[in-house]
Write a structure and sequence with these properties.
About 50% of the residues lie in helices and about 10% in strands. It is an alpha/beta fold. It folds into two domains: about 210 residues, Rossmann fold, CATH 3.40.50; about 80 residues, no CATH class. Strands 2-3-1-4-5 form a five-stranded parallel sheet. Helix 11 runs antiparallel to helix 13. The radius of gyration is 22 Å and the shape is globular. The termini are far apart.
C-alpha cells in the first residue's frame, strides 16, 4: 500500500480549543480531500478517541474504553485488530498525500513509551512521516477552564480544583508529554504551539491550526461557531446544585436530564466562570515552573522567561465565593423552563406536520 507523505497527529492539550478544531475538520472533510488531506472516519467523525484506545495495553481505563465500546481485555484486542485493518483500508482507498488525526486523550491518557510506540507503529504504516501538533496553555488558566468541564460531566465541587497531591498530573505536565512524544517520534516531529491569542497566527486558533497543517491559504473553509465554551458563574452554580445527589433526587433518568440541562446552560449561560484567588493560581503554576522552562528553552528559545508570562491580574485577591441572589436564581429557573417549553412546542409541531403528511 502506498503511504501518505505526512500524518499530522493533533493531541490537545485539554482546554486548548480541541473541540473547535475537531468541528472545523469535520465540517471541511470533503474540502480537505480535494486538497490531498484525509481526515479519516475510522477513528471518529470529529474527536477520535479510538486513537488513544488503540494505544492502551489493557482495558483498565473505563471511561476511554466506553467511548469505543470495549469492556474487557479480550474485546480490546479485537478492537485493535479491527481498527488497524479499517484505518489501513480507508487510507488505501483514498490514497491521500496527507492525513490528519485528532484526539486530546492522546495527551492525557497515553503515558508510557510502550503505549505510544503501539500507536506510532500504526501511524508509520500509513504515512512516511508523523508530525505531532501540541497546543499548550498556562496551567492555572487551563485548570480554571476545566472547572466547567468537570461540572458538565457530573461533578459538583464549588470551585476549580487546584490541589496537587503526589506526581504532577500529565494533563498539565507539558514537558513530560513533550519528552515522551519526542522520544518516540523524534524532536523533528514536534510542533508545540502556544494557546494564546497573541501567539496564534492571526490571533485565531483555526488559522493557526491551518498553518500547522501547511494548508493552502485563502481557501473558503467552513468555520463553525466556537465549541465547548465555559459556563458563566450562574450556569456553574446552577449545574453544581443539580449534580449534587442528582440520582437520589431525579432517579434513573438523572443522567439524561443532566445532559439536557448542560445543552441549555451552554446556550444561555456561557461566560466568565468562578476563579481561584491569585495566591492559589500562583501556587498551582509554581509546580510546573521547572518543566515549563524546559519547554521554553527547547521549543521557544527566543521567548522570555517565564514561558507563559506572570500576569495574574485576571484573578481575584480572595477565592470567588459568589452565589446568585434569590431573584437571579428564580429568573434562571424561569428562563430554562421557557427554553424547555419551546423545545416541547417545536417537537409537537414536528409531530403534527408528520401526521399531516401521512394523512395527505
Amino acid at each position: 500500500m502506498a503511504r501518505a507523505k505526512i500524518c499530522y497527529l493533533h493531541i490537545g492539550a485539554e482546554k486548548t480549543g480541541s473541540t473547535s478544531i475537531q468541528a472545523f475538520l469535520r465540517a471541511n472533510r470533503h474540502r480537505l480531500t480535494g486538497h490531498g488531506y484525509l481526515f479519516p472516519r475510522t477513528p471518529g467523525e470529529d474527536n477520535q478517541p479510538a486513537l488513544a484506545a488503540y494505544a492502551m495495553k489493557d482495558s483498565s481505563r473505563r471511561n476511554l474504553m466506553a467511548q469505543v465500546g470495549v469492556r474487557s481485555d479480550a474485546a480490546l484486542g479485537r478492537f485493535q485488530k479491527e481498527f488497524s485493518a479499517d484505518l489501513l483500508a480507508e487510507v488505501a482507498k483514498t490514497a491521500p498525500e496527507r492525513i490528519v488525526l485528532t484526539n486530546e486523550h492522546c495527551h492525557s491518557r497515553i503515558e508510557t513509551v510502550e503505549e505510544l510506540e503501539r500507536l506510532a507503529t500504526l501511524l508509520h504504516s500509513v504515512a512516511d512521516e508523523v508530525r505531532v501538533i501540541f497546543y499548550i496553555r498556562r496551567q492555572d488558566k487551563a485548570a480554571t477552564s476545566l472547572y466547567s468541564t468537570a461540572l458538565k460531566v457530573g461533578q459538583w465541587r464549588k470551585k476549580p480544583n487546584l490541589a496537587i497531591k503526589g506526581e504532577l498530573p500529565i494533563s498539565f505536565d507539558y514537558w513530560r508529554t513533550c519528552e515522551l512524544y519526542a522520544s518516540v517520534f523524534g524532536m523533528q516531529a514536534m510542533r508545540v504551539r502556544l494557546f494564546d491569542r497573541d501567539q496564534l497566527v492571526g490571533g485565531d486558533l483555526i488559522a493557526d491550526f491551518c498553518d500547522a497543517l501547511e494548508m493552502p491559504a485563502g481557501q473558503d473553509w467552513i468555520v463553525p461557531d466556537s465549541k465547548n465554551q465555559s459556563l458563566g458563574r450562574l450556569g456553574q452554580r446552577f449545574l453544581a446544585a443539580f449534580n449534587q445527589k442528582r440520582q437520589d433526587r431525579f432517579g434513573e433518568q438523572s443522567e439524561h436530564y443532566r445532559m439536557a440541562l448542560v445543552r441549555m446552560l451552554d446556550k444561555h449561560f456561557s461566560g466568565k466562570g468562578i476563579k481561584p484567588s491569585q495566591a492559589a493560581a500562583k501556587a498551582f503554576l509554581s509546580h510546573f515552573k521547572a518543566g515549563n522552562e524546559k519547554v521554553r528553552a527547547t521549543y521557544f528559545p527566543d521567548m522570555p522567561f517565564p514561558l507563559f508570562g506572570d500576569d495574574f491580574s485576571m484573578y481575584p485577591e480572595k477565592d470567588d465565593t459568589w452565589m446568585p441572589g434569590v431573584f437571579m436564581a428564580f429568573d434562571a429557573g424561569a428562563r430554562l423552563f421557557v427554553e424547555q417549553q419551546k423545545e416541547i412546542d417545536r417537537l409537537k409541531a414536528e409531530v403534527a406536520a408528520l401526521k399531516a403528511d401521512d394523512e395527505s
